[in-house]
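Problem 3 from the worked examples.
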Amino acid sequence: MIYEKIRDLPDKPLVFYTNHSEICEHHHASIEIAYVISGTVTICADNAAYSLSERQFAVIGSNIIHSYTAQKGLCIVVLLPLAMLTPFRSKLVGCTFSPCVFTDTEDSLVKTLFDTMAKVIGNTADFADFNNKDALLQSLTNTFMVYLLGKTTFEKKTERSIPDGAVITEYLQQNYMTDISVSSLAKRFGYTEKHMTEIVKCLCGMPLKDYIRMLRINEGKRLLLENHTLDDIASRVGFSCTRTFLRSFVKITGQTPSAYKRDCTAGVSILRPNEELYFH
């Protein structure tokens, strides 16, 4: 199982088309939607298998481990970062969806929304002169979420109530570069350390230190492509030294910073709208 290194854009949706047969187990913080345009696909999520056919789509919650095992058609895949789902985040973080598979019954509304997202992100001729693309993407996202909320219920991955889930997640995403511990987080939000450990595991799908490191490396990747030095990046994202940043970067991405930057500059492993994604 891998954390997908290029999927968690902090505040932008990601849209791509794929017809590959198998995709190994992976997870990411973004909500994933897989819509079958033609053929069939089988998705495994939370130890259950879901078979989809044309005009059906599956919704996979934040940090839910999932895989594609038998794809024989064309899918459009959309990843919605939590930052775009603020009005809905308290229901979405650490949740699974029941049911997981839906049918697009309203005259291909979902496919139209996702195709439009792809065109906006790809800056196609239809939207080249559109001034506020971010607002349009947010509107398309909200339209889909309202549609989804009318068709599903949500199941928490733990029996414990997490009334502060969205607030805690937002706090971590805004303060990951500082020294955050389970103890300090528990004190800030009024929980015991044991309860806070369980909450973080539920919200983030991993221990606190791993989630903080993931957020730091995500920001590090962005700064790397803006040509910041390694020393500057390590300091900005909260690592005590460049060596620790390098070690964490390789552990999470499987590449050195120089290799990652070279591949991105060359277009390798970059997901682009309206292009197939090649999984390695």
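Problem 4, a separate protein:
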Amino acid sequence: MIQIVMDTTTGMTAQEFRDAGITMTSLYVREGEKTLREQIDVFPEDFYKRERKGTIFETAQVNPAEMVNVMKPIIDEGDEVVCVLISSGISGSVNAAHVAAQMLNAEDRISIVDSRESGFGEAYLGRTAKKMADAGESRVEIVKALADIRKRTKTYFIMESLKWLFHGGRLSGAQYLLGSAIKLNPIVWFDDAGLMVSYEKTRTLKVAKDHMCKLVAEAGRNGVEAAALHWPDNLEEAQDFHKQMEEILQSPVAMTKLSCVLGVHTGPDLLGPCIIAKS
């Protein structure tokens, strides 16, 4: 049997992992000296409220030994693993999983999939892997299918403040001061390498949203397999943009709460469309 392992930056709750039959591995945020496990010690609702009040969180690297603890029971049962993880371009989780597979001497039974994404894009890969595993398909077939989906996925973010990128170490002090002075609202995306980089620098939120609508339309021009809108703590704004997305795509759009780990870098105000185009 093939078991699916996936991390908490998908935005899925612990209950959603259980309902899906997917093994959850928690990633971490740090508050001072305290290390908090996502979906165990820290949850988005409280996390974003505290961000708004000025709490500065940091992310923490995953230890390979922790990945061993997640995968060892599966290997000991005689099963195989497809492990779908947050992009290696923004996290060391993929590398930690490869080391864990070596430590378990089970590289021939564990496939590590770098989603080059996070949030809904990653969750969709994991859920697809689970359906294929339940249908009796092999790890090779699953990994090939996920690579195809990954090529068809576009994820963009509008952030209303640069300070979270600065505090998260993804923006220099000079870039932060300059961008804040001219009131930039950047559009950021996961590029083909899975890096979270600037797609376009816009001067107002309205301009950013207008341009984002064009990107959504372009991504879905040949039809949509699945789509979602990430949001952290700005529900009313997200609901308005969600309606626009459904009108543009003429397709249902899910609402995905942004994970705490990603929220460290984005803050509580964000709009993040994810479109998976039809093959």
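Solution to problem 4. The chain has a mean pLDDT of 90. The CA atoms of residues 132 and 141 lie 8 Å apart.
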